[in-house]
Each structure stands twice: as C-alpha cells, then as structure tokens.
Specification:
Blueprint lengths: L3 H4 E6 L2 H14 L2 H8 L4 E6 L4 E7 L2 E7 L2 E4 L1 H5 L9 E4 L4 H4 L5 E2 L3 E5 L7 E6 L5 E7 L3 H6 L4 E8 L3 H9 L1
Parallel strand pairs: 6-9
Antiparallel strand pairs: 1-2, 2-3, 3-4, 4-5, 6-8, 7-11, 9-10, 10-11
Helix pairs in contact: 2-3
C-alpha cells in the first residue's frame, strides 16, 4: 500500500454550499439520520484520495464517516465503530459460515442470510451483520429487495462494497 502522503491529495473543511449539497445527497441516498449527522456538526471535511475506486471520504470530527464509491455515497464502518453513530440503514444478518467469505470480499448470497431487518428495495444501501454477535462488519448495496431475499432460495443478495479489513478500511486507518 502507498504511504500516507501519496494517497492523500487534499483535505479541506467544506463550505456552506458544499455542506448543503452533501446533506441533500445523504438525505436522498441514505436517509434523514445520515444527513442529520453532517447537518448538525461543525467539523466536517472532505479528503480527496489518489485511488481508482475511492476518490473522496467525508470526515466528521476527523473520523471517516462516509465515502464515495462509483458516484454514490456509503457509510463507513468507522462511522459505527469510532463515532458510535448508526444512520439507521436496514440490515441483513448472516450465519457464521458466511462471515469469513464476506470478510474476503465475497458478495452476500441468499443461503447465508438468516434474517432481514427492515424493508429495502434493489439498489439501496444496507449493513451486513453477524447473526451470532450482532456486529456489523460490512456495508453493501442490495441486489434484491428485502421481500425477494425472504422468498428466494439462492442467488446474490448484496454487493459487498466495504468490509472490515478491506483496502478502504486500511486506507482510513492509515491516513486518518
């Protein structure tokens, strides 16, 4: 992995105009709770990275809270673990057999899902949690609606975008 100086292109506090645009994007893509964190916090920055997948990270109180992936904004796992803030996204719980595969970058398959919490449509963001420990360890994008997951017996259910120990996790812990 590159060192800190070669990854970080710039880091700056956002203007009022940028904050309004970010809050609107968060509200549209992740919901009101996600937007409320940025709207109510003074210490919000953008970090631009030299990376092919992850170009911008939104920092709240110096902690990487959200990131952009393929033009969409997602919550980082550090939002939950360092800030203790839950943006209220739906969750899918997976059995212990699926956890190591997901932590190696595999997408979430329907047979590994034990429970779906909340209703969501295809394309919406969600958290992936371990059924046994109830701990969130991945962020994904639904490839099926919650209803389809409950009814389906097989197939890919969630695109694995960010998980504990992945490249983004290492960048966020190294650079910030």
């Amino acid at each position: 992995m590159k060192d800190r100086k070669s990854l970080l292109v710039s880091r700056f506090r956002i203007s009022k105009k940028e904050r309004r645009a970010l809050v609107a994007k968060l509200r549209e893509e992740l919901g009101e709770r996600a937007a409320a964190l940025v709207e109510g916090e003074e210490d919000v920055e953008i970090a631009r990275l030299r990376h092919p997948k992850f170009e911008e990270i939104v920092l709240v109180k110096g902690v990487p809270a959200y990131f952009y992936y393929e033009g969409e904004v997602y919550p980082s796992l550090l939002l939950l673990y360092r800030l203790g803030y839950d943006p209220g996204l739906p969750r899918v719980y997976v059995d212990a057999g699926a956890v190591p595969h997901i932590l190696n970058g595999a997408d979430v398959m329907v047979p590994g899902i034990t429970r779906v919490e909340g209703d969501f449509g295809e394309g919406e963001k969600l958290f992936v949690a371990d059924e046994e420990k109830k701990r969130v360890f991945a962020v994904g994008k639904a490839l099926m609606s919650s209803e389809s997951i409950r009814e389906a017996g097989r197939g890919k259910a969630v695109l694995n975008v960010h998980y504990a120990g992945d490249e983004l996790w290492k960048i966020m812990n190294q650079v910030f």
